[in-house]
Write a structure and sequence with these properties.
Pfam families: Peptidase_M20
Protein name: Allantoate amidohydrolase
Family: Belongs to the peptidase M20 family.
Strand content: 15-25%
InterPro entries: Amidase_Cbmase, Bact_exopeptidase_dim_dom, Peptidase_M20
Keywords: Hydrolase
Distance between the termini: 29 Å
Number of strands: 17
Helix content: 25-40%
Number of helices: 13
Radius of gyration: 22 Å
Mean pLDDT: 95
Length: 412
């Protein structure tokens, strides 16, 4: 693959990347965790939004931000029943370079190719960048799409707080978004005739199939729960081991119980990926410990049953340490089967590429309850995601752009 420098609107590659990925490669780098930390309305996110707007304008697209902080770039006149493509630009803490941005960069690249070939769309078309897909700042995954569809109550959203105690309402206001207007956006939904999201695969399916791209078939049911263990704070040196009610030990017992419950439920996944202790001192027995559970399964009932089993095991673990535990749901997404007619149309357009289920949630999954959606996956040669080691080869990324270009050419 011959590389060239980025041009004003060109589809050049640079440093082994699509040029768009190269342009944002230094934005939001996390020197402590590695990878990237790009969170809603914080400096890296604002810089990425500015980059997106500038690159879209270079392509002659018309950029706007909706009432929920999602950013649109329109190719030609705005209108209802549009073909909309895109993804997100935010990341998990210390995330990889491809999860989200690959879909945005590929959408812009596909439109450039269509423009360069002289193609003119017969329907409205837009690239859409969703706000806070990862939920890393305010704890709700797919925040922008959930607000747009009304899946997330606006009052609840406004009251969400980040790690610094800043409410989503206050953060929105500081970003120029009127918090009073957050919530279901029927006007925006009416604009979308169908939505296609390109995304790096978060798993090993395409490695095994030997294909650079695939079309999504379904998404596992999944959700997030906060588990709060309460015990008795005390002095680490003055408190005998037999006199302790240590919520950290209750949390530790529970982590093993979570793993065991998921292993006993075929096809399920359960993860504790975050922990916070109060007061958090080295020489202090915690008074309270919170952990966050991510649980997933192939069907809604299986995921709910898994969480019920985990809740019972967590309560037993807490009681064994003289503590209490409260499990509170923070978000939930039922299993998604993507629109079969649109899925099959994409498969035909891409000459019979494979279809794959995914265990990862996406904005396309949230929108699927209101309109036809589909996803194109690009091969991840390691299968690793949500990590600095996340990767996709330049050739596979270009194959993804070609696939999206072909799909848009047919749909438009």
């Amino acid at each position: 693959m011959t590389e060239s420098a980025t041009t004003g609107t060109g589809p050049a590659t640079a440093h082994g990347l699509l040029s768009g990925l190269d342009e944002i490669a230094e934005i939001g780098r996390d020197t402590r965790r590695g990878g990237y930390s790009r969170h809603l309305w914080q400096p890296a996110d604002r810089e990425l939004r500015d980059w997106f707007a500038e690159r879209a304008v270079r392509l002659g697209l018309d950029v706007e931000t909706d009432r929920n902080g999602n950013t649109w770039a329109w190719w030609g006149p705005r209108g209802d029943d549009a073909i909309v493509v895109g993804s997100h630009l935010d990341s998990v803490p210390g995330g990889g370079a491809y999860d989200g941005p690959l879909g945005v960069v590929s959408a812009l690249e596909a439109i450039y190719r269509l423009q360069a070939s002289g193609f003119r769309p017969a329907r409205p078309c837009a690239v859409l960048v969703f706000a806070e897909e990862e939920g890393s700042r305010f704890g709700i995954a797919c925040l922008g799409s959930r607000l747009m569809t009304g899946a997330l109550d606006a009052d609840r959203a406004r009251a969400l707080v980040d790690a610094e105690g800043i409410s989503l309402g206050a953060a929105a206001s500081a970003a120029g978004i009127d918090p009073a207007r957050l919530g279901e956006d029927r006007t925006a939904l009416a604009r979308i005739g169908l939505f296609v999201e390109l995304h790096v695969e978060q798993g090993r399916g395409l490695i095994d199939l030997g294909s650079p791209v695939a079309v999504a078939s379904s998404i596992l049911a999944h959700g997030r729960w906060r588990v709060t263990f309460t015990g008795e704070g005390n002095h680490a040196g003055a408190t005998r081991m037999t006199d302790r009610r240590d919520p950290m030990l209750a949390a530790g017992r529970s982590m093993l119980a979570v793993r065991d419950a998921a292993v006993a439920s075929p096809g399920s996944r359960a993860t504790i990926g975050r922990i916070e202790a109060v007061p958090g001192g080295t020489n202090v027995i915690s008074s309270q410990v919170a952990v966050w559970l991510d649980a997933r399964a192939t069907e809604d009932a299986a995921a709910r049953d898994l969480v019920t089993e985990i809740t019972a095991r967590v309560s037993e673990a807490a009681a064994a340490e003289g503590c209490t535990a409260v499990v509170a749901e923070e978000s939930w997404s039922g299993a998604v089967a993507f629109d079969p007619a649109l899925r099959d149309r994409l498969v035909r357009s891409l000459h019979g590429v494979p279809t794959l289920p995914t265990g990862a949630g996406h904005d396309a999954g949230v929108l699927s309850s209101r309109l036809p959606t589909a996803m194109i996956f690009v091969r991840n040669p390691t299968g690793i995601s949500h990590s600095p080691e996340e990767f996709a080869t330049l050739d596979d990324c270009l194959a993804g752009v070609t696939a999206l270009e072909q799909v848009l050419r047919e749909l438009l």
